[in-house]
């Protein structure tokens, strides 16, 4: 008898086994894909699980007290973030005042400020009246945007403050991305308390 039928039978069996394995792999991949999609959909909704990890698996509240402590930490972190923003605004105002004071320092061989103003073509002499008293003043048009010089005592401090502020902001963002209701409300509460306390200082440099 010829050996060709036997080889053909083996080939048919191998093809059948390959098809079964392909089906199994496709089923496993489809099931894993559905599982990952379902897990992503589950992660994109708010949840109230008190055992939600924060920043690391080791930081997972195992009791109601630990969960409350985590929420308090997030509220304090949000308050610290608002304090840092206010501190940066105050410091920027101080640096600006120092730069403005430097511009009015008299130097030998330089034209006095009063003479510079009187010779300035953009200066306009006007009369200012206040409480019945007339004062002669000069109105000078402001110059275009002027870049403040780089200073070793200012710019590294500004960069460090910006880095800390951005770091705190990202930590708060990661806490909110857990989609835990308690964490989210704690961050909002901390922002509210911080803005209520020092929000008036946040734009102090712009006035």
From TrEMBL:
Species in which this protein is naturally found: Conoideocrella luteorostrata
Main localization (coarse): membrane
Domain of life the protein comes from: Eukaryota
UniProt GO cellular component terms: plasma membrane
UniProt cross-references to PANTHER family, sorted A to Z: HIGH-AFFINITY COPPER TRANSPORTER CTRA2, SOLUTE CARRIER FAMILY 31 COPPER TRANSPORTERS
Transmembrane regions: 66-85, 159-177
Protein name: Copper transport protein
Key words, A-Z: Copper, Copper transport, Ion transport, Membrane, Transmembrane, Transmembrane helix, Transport
Family: Belongs to the copper transporter (Ctr) (TC 1.A.56) family. SLC31A subfamily.
Biased composition (Low complexity): 24-36
Localisation: Membrane
Basic and acidic residues bias (residue ranges): 9-23
């Amino acid at each position: 008898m010829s050996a060709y039928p036997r080889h053909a039978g083996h080939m048919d069996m191998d093809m059948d086994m390959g098809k079964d394995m392909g089906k199994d792999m496709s089923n496993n991949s489809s099931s894993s894909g559905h599982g990952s999609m379902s897990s992503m959909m589950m992660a994109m909704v708010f949840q109230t699980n008190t055992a939600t990890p924060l920043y690391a698996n080791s930081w997972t509240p195992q009791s109601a007290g630990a969960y409350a402590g985590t929420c308090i930490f997030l509220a304090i972190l949000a308050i610290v973030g608002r304090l840092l923003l206010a501190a940066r605004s105050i410091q920027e105002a101080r640096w600006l005042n120092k730069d403005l004071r430097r511009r009015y320092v008299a130097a030998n061989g330089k034209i006095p400020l009063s003479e510079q103003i009187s010779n300035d073509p953009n200066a306009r002499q006007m009369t200012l009246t206040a409480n019945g008293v007339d004062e002669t003043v000069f109105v000078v048009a402001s110059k275009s945007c002027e870049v403040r010089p780089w200073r070793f005592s200012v710019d590294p401090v500004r960069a460090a403050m910006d880095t800390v502020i951005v770091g705190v902001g990202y930590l708060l963002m990661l806490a909110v991305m857990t989609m835990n209701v308690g964490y989210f409300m704690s961050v909002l509460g901390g922002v509210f308390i911080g803005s209520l306390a020092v929000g008036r200082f946040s734009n102090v440099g712009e006035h």
